[in-house]
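Chapter review: from sequence to fold.
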Amino acid sequence: MATTAPTPKPTASPRPQSQLPPTQTRIIAGARHLTTAIGHWAGGHTISAEELTRRIVKARTDAHGRTLAEHARLAQQAHNRATKLRRRAEQNGGLVPADQTALAAAEHTGARHDAALAALADFDVTALDPGQVLHRRHLIAAARYGLLSLPAFGMLAAAWLWDGSVVLVVAVAAAAAALIRGDHPIHLTVRPVPADLIAATPLVPAAEPAAPAPEPAVETPSGEWREQLLRYVEYAVSHARQNATNGVHARDLLGRLQAEGRFLDYTTETFPAVLRSAGVPLKVVKIKGDGQLGVHYDHLTKALGRLPRLARAKDYTERPEQEQASGE
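The token string follows.
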């Protein structure tokens, strides 16, 4: 009795070398977002230019006030000394040479401080060089980066003095934080100017609130571009199906298109609207544990009314009519 050989089980195609595992991709994206947020804080960009300007003006105003008070005190002291010596001269019919020298010195000192007060009265403390604001931001950045270096030096010291596994623990904790963050950007903000600082610097004009940025208009591809985009998605989903994957994330589609120099003006937030306008159905697709908005094979099949096609080396169905006629 003849026996038939068992049918070999189909094996999944290996993942392309350029495609990273979902966990590694998520860790890289999370590390990028965390690094951007830390750099935003450490660079002093959480403090607005208006706050820096007001702090510089307040420091100069306080220093100017202290200088005025000191000159006024010294001038009053010199004038009192001169007045006392003149009164003594009236009472005694003159002054001894030492008192005459002291009177001349007191009058000179009083005149000098009076001139300083007159000069400082015309000094504008709000006139700032734009470089001073940038210099203040650099000082804040230097202090914050120095503060960030302390944990790194502490970790190295702990690894050197106690156990080298401290570095491994820190690395695992950093990877876990990046994995938790994933591809969710951190909103970079600028803190508001304190009310007491605004009250202390009334001469500095308040910055006008920035108008909200208009949402970028999504250009809807039509005609040939629309057909090409739908065909590109169809080929990508079919290729993913061959690799035992039920769909493709919209983020990955945009990355591949932008690598070819297409759709460079779009982001992961605006590109889904372009896909929908081209007739591509979207839903949350879970690919190897990573759930993101994308195109599922079954939903694309339903939208097309047929099975998605695979890309071929040359599509002979789209030859010009003259070429087809000559071929026949």
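Two observations follow directly from the output. Residues 73 and 113 are 9 Å apart (CA to CA). The two ends are 50 Å apart (CA to CA).
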